[in-house]
Structure formats: structure tokens, C-alpha cells
Design goal:
The protein has a single domain, classed as HIT-like (HIT family, subunit A), CATH 3.30.428. The chain is 30% helix and 13% strand. The protein has 7 helices and 5 strands; from the N terminus they run ααααβββαββαα. Strand 1 and strand 2 form a beta hairpin. Helix 5 packs across helix 7.
């Protein structure tokens, strides 16, 4: 562990910090980048479509800048900025719509097709053993951005819930998001 450019503290300072508990042999793993998500950075302040909605804004960027893996006719596949596992992506309709029942038949078909293709690409790149696929409908159901529907495709492997999340409440992602995007885009069926 090293100190971050924005932090004047070293790992040794953190271990000695008052209030962190009784000194022990464990080195703490800190994930300060998660604060952006926790504090709602880039979260829309309204339910309106447009530049305030990241899912509306992303298609206007380059695929590399937006982390878009593939663009379909009615939806696109994009890496999650706050992934649960390596390769976690979302399938998002271009149209700003909140509820699955509001999708057109063409949008439903494209979301379905892109989800299947995402699974194929992820299996090709990383040999995923399984997937969690789903969408949280409404803020009460856990949707971080409830106003713009998005379906999660989370790859899973035997043993992927190891001691890190169980003991340290930390997820280890071994690859930078732009590198993951490039691999998946190259392997998209």
C-alpha cells in the first residue's frame, strides 16, 4: 500500500492513527475512490433526460472515454464505474426511460441481444463461470440511477467471494477499466 498523491499520509501514519483500534498485524486496504460513489458524485440531481443523466450523456462521448464496449441499435453496453467484479457492465437503452414496461419491443430485443453478447464476450475474455444479470427498478429497489433503466451483467467465478470481501470488505479488481473495455470490445461477437 502506498500513499495517494492527494494524501500527505503514509500507510504507517494510518496504522498509528488514533481511533483505528488496537494495533494488530493487519495492514488495512483503503478504497478512497469508492467515496465518489458513496457521496453521489455524477449522480443526477433530477429525473430529467439530458446532460445531467450520465446514461444520456455517455453515448455522446467516444467509446474509450465513455467506457462503452458496444453500441447497438436501441441500447449500448458500458462498463460500470463501480464494478462488483472485473468485467461488470451494464446494458442501457439510449432512450431515457425508467421502467422496463415502458421499453418498446425493439428496445427489449436490443437489451436482450446485447446481454447475450455481453455474456459471450466476457466468457471469451475471462472464462466467467456464471453471471448475475438483473436490473433494480426504482430507487427503493436499489437503483443508483433510477430514472434511466440499466441492466447489470456481473460475471462470477467459483471462489470469487474470497477472504477479501468477506473479511476486509474490499473487492480486488486486477485490471484498469480502459483495459477491460478494450478486451471486451475486441471480443464482442
Amino acid at each position: 500500500m502506498t500513499d495517494t498523491p492527494d494524501s500527505p499520509y503514509t500507510p504507517e501514519d494510518v496504522v498509528r492513527q488514533d481511533g483505528v483500534g488496537v494495533p494488530d498485524p493487519f495492514m488495512r486496504l483503503w478504497t478512497p475512490h469508492r467515496m465518489a460513489y458513496i457521496e453521489g458524485e455524477n449522480k443526477p440531481t433530477s429525473d430529467e433526460a439530458g446532460a445531467g443523466c450520465p446514461f444520456c450523456r455517455l453515448p455522446g462521448l467516444t467509446d474509450v472515454d465513455a467506457l462503452i464496449v458496444h453500441r447497438g441499435a436501441a441500447a449500448y453496453a458500458v462498463l460500470n464505474l463501480y464494478p462488483y467484479n472485473p468485467g461488470h457492465l451494464m446494458v442501457v437503452p439510449y432512450r431515457h426511460v425508467a421502467d422496463y414496461t415502458e421499453l418498446t419491443e425493439a428496445e427489449v430485443a436490443d437489451v436482450s441481444t446485447l446481454t447475450r453478447q455481453a455474456m459471450q464476450a466476457i466468457r471469451t475474455v475471462s472464462g466467467a463461470h456464471g453471471f448475475n444479470i438483473g436490473m433494480n427498478q426504482g430507487e427503493i429497489a436499489g437503483a443508483g440511477i433510477a430514472a434511466h433503466l440499466h441492466q447489470h451483467v456481473v460475471p462470477r467465478w467459483a471462489g470469487d467471494t474470497n477472504f477479501m470481501p468477506a473479511i476486509a470488505h474490499t473487492k480486488v479488481l486486477p485490471q484498469l477499466l480502459p483495459d477491460t473495455r478494450a478486451l471486451l470490445a475486441k471480443s464482442w461477437p
